[in-house]
Amino acid sequence: MPKILELEQHVADLIAAGEVVQRPSSVVKELMENSIDSGASIVTVEIASGGMTYIRVTDNGCGIAAEDVKTAFLRHATSKLRDAHGLEAIGTLGFRGEALAAIAAVSRVELMTREPGANEGTSLTLEAGVVVNMSPVGSPEGTTIIVRDLFFNTPARLKFMKTDRAESSGVASVVLKCALSRPDISFRFIKDGKTEYHTPGDSRVDSCIYSLLGREIEAGLVSAESSDEAVSVSGFVSTPAAARGNRSYQFFFVNGRVIRSLLLQSALEQAYKNTLPSGRYPSCVLFITTKPGNVDVNVHPAKTEVKFVSEKQIFDGVYYAALGAIDKAQLNSTNSIQAESDSVTLYGSDKNRESGNYNILNTEAQGRTGGYTERRAVRETAGHGGFKTMQADEFLGTYVSEPIKEYPYSNKLSSTPSQFSGSDIPYNTPQNKEDENFTSGSDKDFRLIGEALNVYIIIEYENSIWLIDKHAAHERIHFDALRNGKYETMSESLISPVVCRLGHEDTSLLLDNAGFLETLGFSVESFGEDSVAVRHIPSEIDVGDTESVLSEMCQQLRHGGVALPSQRDGLFKSIACKAAIKAGRASGHRELEALAARVVSGEVSHCPHGRPVAFEITKATLDKGFGRI
Ligand code: ADP
Ligand code: MG
Fold it and tell me: Which residue has a Cα nearest atom 25 of ligand 1?
């Protein structure tokens, strides 16, 4: 073993800096949080080249006294926390006293600051954490920090930077969340000389949402509130009709801090359980306030994850706030339908009646309600496990390669094979040789009894009854085909491009991976800062699923791109799931039989997500259940 030595201070500082400052967006986040903590009412953020060459954050807050300016850049120097006890009740965003030191260690920093009422301000310049100049300066009240040439002295870190576009969108997303968290502060975000966001700072959540997320999102929201002695929730959630194909517009703030939390996400989505089909997600901007002691923000260095002391209280707060808002929205829409109907009855001109406004609205409403009831009924029936004695035996299956296209969409124009695999057998053509295999089934003899609940194929095979989840089986087949390079998707042109609004980060992720997506049959183009226009999609995927497939893919891409096999698997799963026949839709005899054949032939055992594909109920089990043996 080499001798153990203590790291030199500057090396230790660089390591510590790496934890706080990972990319331009983390610098912007820390600087904005400092500005918010300074009590500012106006904050301006400006970046150039994704923040790599230039970041400037200006505020009109409390400023820093001349004698404290240098101290602010020391590690663990903070004005916000005095002792361990204070950690429990932390009310400010920053508290570790690390940010300025960490940022300065890996860049060239210029600070200008003046306390309100002070005669003059102070200017401080640092390079790689070392002070190069400090002098009095005429400066407006508040603080301006300019960070240039991020990571200029840490080339290893520089290599990890993404494209300027991706870094910019990371910054934009941080600014958006910060700005959303404080409707009482006016934020301006300037990117490469152009103003991207400007919030009014009038303390109104709706006007803040409008200026950051746009008219369309704002219009689909209704206010949501709940409170009890431990937790209060306020903000906005989307009406069921305004649900989206992704979760990009779910924002949760706990005690003013933006938080990622599965608990909050599932509390929100539970509230929509009976009003949204799967694959549709609510949006929200929710502010959750609870006693500081209820939340442990110290679990994550970036402070974006929290632990709640009482998860149930928090869950209920969000759940009931959303539920109340949904009820209100539905009541409003029923009222407006009623009002429409009244107006037709009372004042209805012939023109009105001819145009059938009333009828259309009413039918839609009935259709929708009908849909919910039906879905609930299916779930309940399925939930009453009549087959308690069933056992999930081991089943193996082989891959079937015929995708069953049920609903041809008129939006699709033409097909061109994409170049994903080297296989020369077209994957999805009815003339396909494998299609013959598909119909002829396997050499195993089984008898198709039918389909139950539009989900389960029932077959009789070797003295047993098998129940097969048709979606899971088909999904596995697609997945294996994709993974083994046997998948040659047909890419279909859409008559009109589908515009998917996925948020900044996902948009730039998709654009940066456009080449790979093309190999899977998608063509995506930039469409404004936070949207992509999709002109081609794989023929196996419904047009209506485009947004949700792309957004699922983003989740994979976010965690490491397409280079890793596990990441590719994740992408394949998304496509396989969407391309597979849907549970809940009736299928033809031929496709049921073909799927069952693949399952009994022994290669398909679990869906790509690990759920079993089939259940076997042996004759012995049945006989026993009926008291025959
Ligand atoms: P922390 O925010 O965790 O205290 P930082 O390194 O981010 O640590 O900042 C160190 C200190 O510098 C803060 O505690 C605060 O006193 C001061 N400071 C930093 N930015 C500003 C600002 N924009 N306005 C006023 N004071 C600031
Ligand atoms: Mg700070």
Answer: 63
Q: Which residue has the higher pLDDT, 407 or 622?
A: 622
Please give the Cα distance from 15 to 65 (Å, whole number): 29
In sign, the C-alpha dihedral spanning 192, 196, 198, 204 is: negative
Ligand 2 mean position, distance from CA 31 (Å): 7
Per-residue model confidence (pLDDT) at position 48: 96
Closest-CA residue, ligand 1 atom 21, reads: 34
112-124: average pLDDT? 96
The pairs formed by 413-416 with CB atoms below 8 angstroms and a separation of 24 or more are 413/492, 413/493, 413/494, 413/495, 414/492, 414/493, 415/490, 415/491, 415/492, 415/493, 415/539, 416/490, 416/491, 416/492, 416/493, 416/536
CA–CA separation, 235 vs 221, rounded Å?
9
- 611-623 per-position pLDDT tens digit: 888 888 999 999 9
What single-letter DSSP state applies at residue 467?
Answer: E
Res 98: pLDDT: 82
Say yes or no: CB of residue 24 within 6 Å of ligand 1: no
What does the mean pLDDT of the chain come to?
77
Q: Could you check whether 9-198 and 214-332 share the same CATH topology?
A: no
SS3 labels along 595-620:
HHHHHHCCECCECCCCCECEEEEEHH
Which of 232-236, 436-440, 454-458 is the least confident region? Answer: 436-440
Name which residue sits closest to atom 13 of ligand 1, judged by CA: 78
| pLDDT at residue 299, rounded to an integer | 57
- pLDDT higher than 80, residue 511: yes
Residue 133 pairs in a beta bridge with: 125
- Rounded Cα distance between 608 and 599, Å, is 14
Asked whether residue 298 carries a pLDDT value surpassing 80, the answer given is no
Q: Is pLDDT of 379 > 80?
A: no
Nearest CA, atom 18, ligand 1: 34
Fold of 9-198: Heat Shock Protein 90 (3.30.565)
256 closest CA partner among 184, 353, 206, 197 = 184
Task: Return the SS3 of 310.
Answer: coil
The CATH code of the domain at 214-332 is 3.30.230.10
By three-state DSSP, how is residue 68 classified? Answer: helix
Q: Give dist(CA 204, CA 200) in Å, integer.
A: 9
Reported confidence tier of residue 335, pLDDT bands at 50, 70, 90: low
Give the strands of the sheet with 456-461, arranged side by side. Answer: 447-452, 456-461, 464-469, 614-618
β-bridge partners, 538: 491
80 Cβ below 6 A of ligand 1 = yes
Q: Is the CB of 64 under 6 A from ligand 1?
A: yes
Domain ranges of the chain: 9-198, 214-332, 344-399, 433-615
Asked whether the beta carbons of 478 and 487 are under 8 A apart, the reply is yes
Beta carbon of 292 within 6 Å of any ligand 1 atom: no
- Domain 433-615 architecture: 2-Layer Sandwich (3.30)
Ligand 1 contacts CB of residue 96 (under 6 A): yes
Contact by Cβ (8 Å): 199, 212: yes
How many other C-beta atoms are found inside a 10 Å radius of the C-beta of residue 131? 14
- Interhelix angle 589-600/470-483, rounded to 10 degrees, is 60
Position 322 scores a pLDDT of 95
Handedness of CA 490, 495, 501, 505 (dihedral sign): positive
